[in-house]
Amino acid sequence: MEISTDSELEILVMNDLPDIDLELSEGGSNKEMRSTQRVVVAMSGGVDSSVAAALVKRAGYDTIGITLQLYDHGDATKRKGACCAGQDIHDARSVAASLDIPHYVLDYESLFRESVIDNFADTYLSGHTPIPCVKCNETVKFKDLLTTAKDLGAEALVTGHYIETSFNDGQWQMRRPVDEKRDQSYFLFSTTHEQLSFLRFPLAHLTKNEIREFAAKLALPVADKPDSQDICFVPNGDYASVIERLRPDCSLPGEIVDMYGNILGQHQGVLHYTVGQRRGLGVAIGEPLYVVRIDADTRQVIVGPKEALARRTIILDEVNWLGGERLSDPIDVKVKIRSTGSPVRANLTLLQGQRAEVSLDIPEEGVSPGQACVFYGAEEGPAARVLGGGWIISAQ
């Protein structure tokens, strides 16, 4: 269905949709001004980015859809709910046609391989727990695609992420969205102030149910498409098979030891283990054992009781600070150390360079190097401000 006002049905549908102002000029913009303001929408082929494109088009902006082809291998391209490959590119193209907006597919496969997939494999083999979605956002999408959008004369790049941004106190700020279950701030913590000034996220005040209702009213072909659950290039969550394909010599055997160095068994590669793992260890001593640490240099998997997973002090590197003036004194914050967790109270100290120390009020289990730790304002409500975050390099 083309978005226009040529029929009473379309007028009714459009009136049900929220009007958005992307604030591309000081004080907002009227419809006449918007028609001269070009906006690029990153369209993954999912329902979120599709509705984001519809909102931008409906608001009157000169809208262009861009889909990135990021990989083209294996069963991953055949799965519904993956993004940026196979069926999803076709879905994005169909949505763009229904919205009557130009649509382009850009081949970023080599870049994605270098920046995200290779990093994923190397991080895993180093005994750390990678988060490729963060790497994809901070490199491929919010760096290279953002540059492409500017080259096309766009004044903003729109995505379907659930996050809120606003311009306050002389800078762009990031906050959690209305639908906290869809909050994607954990994956966006490394977004810089400069990038935030060009990015727009029109779904911040909508719930997932509202998104699907709007998609159905617009007769978008992806209205009922399931959400992505796994890492896009990892079919069925089978990390090991992907890493073995990327690094054929990675399955080097090693020892499974307890916390005192006693050998309990053998393993066939550290890629099969993550911190906090309990099942599939292949050893038993009469009580539950968990992976406490992985030493990639010695190829040892260290296991212990559940209480040995507890960590109170976390050291971070490559910290991205979004909280305004950089503070020298410790401050109270809330933090998330995994995407599915809830923010917990902690004390944050920004150290020299890009490092920081986080002291948790209550110890957390399963903290692993390679994960992210994201900071939020301590006293704020559901729309808490995102103060930044960093990569975990060690925990005590």
Could you list the spans in which at least 5 consecutive residues all have pLDDT below 50?
1-13, 73-77
What name goes with the CATH superfamily of the largest domain?
Answer: HUPs
The ordered H/E elements are HHEHEHEHHEEEHEHHEEEEEEEEEE
CATH topology of the largest domain: Rossmann fold
Per CATH, the class of the largest domain reads Alpha Beta
Per-chain topology:
Blueprint: H1 8-16, H2 31-34, E1 38-42, H3 47-58, E2 62-69, H4 87-99, E3 103-107, H5 109-125, H6 132-151, E4 156-158, E5 164-168, E6 171-175, H7 193-196, E7 199-200, H8 208-217, H9 239-246, E8 254-257, E9 263-267, E10 290-295, E11 300-304, E12 311-321, E13 331-336, E14 344-350, E15 356-364, E16 372-377, E17 385-395
Helix pairs in contact: 3-4, 3-8, 5-6
Binding site for ATP: 42-49, 68, 160
Keywords: ATP-binding, Cytoplasm, Disulfide bond, Nucleotide-binding, RNA-binding, Transferase, tRNA processing, tRNA-binding
Domain tRNA-specific 2-thiouridylase MnmA-like C-terminal: 312-392
